[in-house]
Structures are given as C-alpha cells and as structure tokens.
Amino acid sequence: MTTIPGARSNQAWWPQQELPPQWWTPPELPAAAPQPSYQPPALLPLPLWEQHAALAEPLLLAPAPTGYVAPAPYVEPGYQFPALPEAWSQPATTGAWVEPAPVAWAEPAPVAWVEPAPEASTQAWPEVWTDPAPAEPWAPPEAAEPPPAADGLPLPADRLVPEAQPVKVSVDNNRCHIYGICQQEAPEVFRISEGGSLHYTGAVPARLAARARQAVRCCPMQAIAISGGAPPSARRHRPAAVRPADYRRIVVAGGGLAGLSAASRLRERGYDGELVLIGEELRRPYSRPPLSKQFLAGELGAEDLTFRADDTLDAHWLLGTQLLGLDTEQRTVELRGGERLPYDGLVIATGVDARRLPSTPVLSDRVRTVRTLADATAIQQALQQARAHHVVILGGGFVGCELACTARDLGMEVTLVVHSAPLLRRVLGSQLGEVVGRLQARAGVDVRLSTRIDDWSDTGTGLRLRLDDGEVLDADFVVLGLGSVPRTEWLRGSALDVTDGVLCDAGCHVLDLAGRPVPGVVAAGDVARWPNARFDATPRRVEHLIHAVEMGQHAADALLAGPERAEPFTPVPRFWSEQHGTRLQAVGLPALGERMEVVEGSLRTESFVATYHRDTAQGSQLVAAVAFDMPSQLLDYRDAIGRTGPMPRTLTSRRRRR
Questions:
Q1: What is the pTM of this model?
Q2: Contact of 161 with 214, CB cutoff 8 Å
Q3: CB of 398 within 8 A of CB of 427?
Q4: 10 Å Cβ neighbour count for 297?
C-alpha cells in the first residue's frame, strides 16, 4: 500500500487497530459493493464514528515541529477494512467503501488532541485494550511480496523483548531534528511526512511498545519520552526469567551507551542477579553525537544529553573508576588502587578514545579533541574566553565536518585541513564526498584537501601552523577530529586478541589469541570487532550510536545463552549527520561498495538516494544506501542491505518512477 501524507493518521483514532503492512496489496473491489447511506472516515470503526462526529475539532497525530491540520483520512481505491484476528478483545467491525479524497496539507497552528467523551459512544469500550497473544503475528490473506530481507538474516528489531502493557510516547519538538531514526525503529508509531514533519501515535498498544521503547533508546537527541508500561527492573517476574547458577554477578566494563544497553537487556531477559557498571567518567551514560553540534552551539545542556530510557535500572554504578587489567582465569577485573572485582559474567564495552597526532603540542590548552562531555565543555569555555575568531579543524570525517558546521554557525572563520580528498571519502566515497565539500564551501568553510601540517608553535596568544605547501595559518584554537582508537590498553596481557579492538565471534563472545571463546565474556559497541554475516566473514568495528544500542542488547543475550547457543549478530549499520542544514543518513557499510548508483533524486539538486554495490561469488551485493534529505525514501532500502542478486521488485519499481 502506497504511503502518502495522512495515511497513518487513523492510528490516532484507534491506536489498537492492526494496520496491514505497507507491502500488502489490497483485494480487488467486488463487482457490486454496497454503498452506505453515509460515509464515515476511512478505516474508522462505526461506533467511533459517532464520537468523531460529535467533536468540535478533528483528531490528529501530535505534530512536530511545525503545525499542520490533519488531512482527510485516506484509503486506497478498493480497500476493504480487514477482519481482525480472533485474539483481539474488541468486537469485530465493518468498514465502508470510500472514494479517496484528495489530500491537501496546510500550515496553520497545531490542533490539540481531543479525547472523545465516553458517553458519546453507543457501545461500552474497555478501559484498557488487550493485545493479541504474541504467538503468531496476523498477516492479511494473499499478501504480496514481503519486505526484502538479506538472505533471511534477522534484524536486531526482530529480537526485542515483547511487552505486555501499552505505553504513551511524546516528542520534544525543540530537540527533534527529524533525523528519522524513530521511523526506522518503529514505522508503525513514527512517520516523516513528504513535507518533512514528524508524525507519531501518542498511545502505543502493547504489541508495539518494545519498538517504541527502542526508538527512545536510539534517538540521538533524546527527544522522545515514553511513559507507562513496565521498566526493565519490574519485568523479572516473566516466565523467561534467567539467572544462571554461575552468573551471580555480571560486570559491565564501560559506562557508555553499549554498556547501558547490555545492562538493560539483562534485566529485560529476567536476570535478577547482581549487576555492576564501571565507568571512567563521573556521569551516567549520555548521547555523544550532539557534542560536536548542538552542545557546542548551546542548544542543549549537559543534562539534556543524559539517556532517559531505562532510568530505573537496578544496578551498582562505579563511576569515576579506571580499569587497569583483566584476569580471565580468576575472573576478576583490576581497578585503580589495586582492587580486584570478581565477576561471573563480563561485558566489555569500553568504547574508543580520540586519536591524536604525534607532533601535536598536547600541552597547549588551545588544542582539543571532542570525545567526552568534558572535552566539549572545555572547548566551549575556551572558545568563549578567547573570543576565538579563527578556528582550524583537523580531519575530514564526520566529527571534523560537523565541527566546521558548528563553528560557522557561531560566526567564526573556519579552516578545515584534511589529509585526503575529498571530505568523507573513506565513509561515502569520492562522488558523495564532493557533494559534502560543496556544502561546506558554500557555507564559507575554507577547505584544504590533501594537506598536512609540518610544524606547530604556540605564540602565547594563539597557534601558528605551517602547512606542507609552505603557507602559515594563525589560529585562535585548533580542534582535532582525526578519528578514534579502541580503548583496549587495560586488556594488554589478558590473552585476548585486541588487534584493532576486542575480537569476537559472530555471536559477540570474546575470543582469545588461539581463537577460542573466553568463558563468560562478551563485548559490545565501538570497541568490539566481529564478523557480520550480513556482509561477509571479515571482523570489523562499527562506531555508531544505534550500533551501540543493538550490539549491547545482543551481547547480553549471548552472555545468557552461552557461546554454543548464541545467535549471530547481523545488524544493518545505520548512521546520520547534518551538514549546514542538509540531513545525511545511511544504512549499511558504504565503504564496502565498489560501485555507487543514484537511484532517486540527483547529485545536482543535493537531494537523492544512492546505493552501493560490490561483486561477490553469489552475485552483486547491496552493501549500503545513503540519502541526502530523503529520510523517508531511505527506509525502503534498509532491509535489503546485504542482499545478493537482482534488486527486490519493490525497490526497482521505485527507481523506475523517479
């Protein structure tokens, strides 16, 4: 079923209604369809139509960030309201054949949600809807081609822990930047319209509660709040509760998002033993992507970055604690001061550190990296105190490019010095990197490609940099955005393979130098290197926020299951950025691509979707898709990442229509 603006707004009238999947083809219209004497809104059950007619204002989804009036309810020509599964508690209803009305968007002030009065209904409705048993999801008959999948490999979303209670969600419009991550996590709850506004269903039934909660975890701006339901610490009465006899204490080494995600999943799975989280910073886990953008710009404060999901976690926090060593034989981790903390199970999630240049004057307060909240705070204060006018940024990756955007927005003169050419070449390739370069140059950034710094000096009032072409740059401040290195120094001598991160098997269990799984030890997040069977058998690290959430969850599952029963971790990597107002989003691993093809839009307009392919023994493989200002269109390509052979019919038809 084609998705157009307003197509999902019926969920606001009846959130518990089971809607057909987007790929479902409706049955043909009977030759003689009965015509009703009046036409209620499409898909609206007849008893609720009487409530709707009595309202002074129409019902609609909560808008963000700009106001709009909900369009007329839409229904496909010939679409028949589907019968509900018998497991549903609400009575069966019938629909009506309706000719689709043209959809027109408007931009007046938002219309507030109006709760229907109970007495307006001609039928008694239960206060709390019960959802169908989670045994088998209902599917409409004669379904068309299902959503494309990569050789049947499951996505992490397929392994979410079901919830038995409905929840409510709300969005802070001031924080939301419409990155569309929430739509990727829960398309039944969140939707980005063709006009770029975020629409969402406030009341989420229990069958979708786990997906909605995952969207909260993955939101980089922490713009989504969730209420109701049962937090992880309250779900340990589940029949699936797990507490292996040898896992009395599980230690999570790392106080970032991957560690928090692993701890939360352990509670969700019913683990009720002791849970200890060790972090070097003095703060609870927070979102790092906004550090180089919204935090430096003053749009978000430190408290705004703290992860709000699963804040009821029942665990011991050892913050401000440095890890010094690991003894896998004795099952202990060594802490600063010589203390040894025994563990039965261990999750390694220590993340990465910012990379530095050997020739950098590290003792100068005018040279900073951006990795932690303390780093970003120091840069923010130094820029304000020095009243910096000229900032030099080293590095043409995402951090360097986003820092350039922030500095320009603050009115500074910015020089971006990059060793390679063009920008983001290692991530997106040359063609899309040139598009990013145009965006930066048009915003006034002085981009120096294929350039190195031969000499540094601190003049007392600033920094003087001599470039390899002989030019001298005088700067008030220098920020390094040169990438990262895994935090594995504390694992030296532990018999683990820590070459470019902690080596793991396909199920996230840590391997020793002989390639054997270490009992009771898993790894997750930026520090972990593992083979993703969606692509090939080569172990790689992935450094993205969503990956930290998903791998933390899978590592917890693998720890409880053991190396023999752990399923392989086969996610679709996803990341995003914002370059001077242009939203860049990607799924997959573009760096693996051998060929790039623009399948929607055009490079000239800087609004497009590009796919990346490579040749394998099984045929051409789709390894990534990147969208510039097309977040909704990108969603169609996510589940096909890793697929070999011809493109799915749903995607080739989109390409023909462009």
A1: 0.76
A2: no
A3: yes
A4: 15
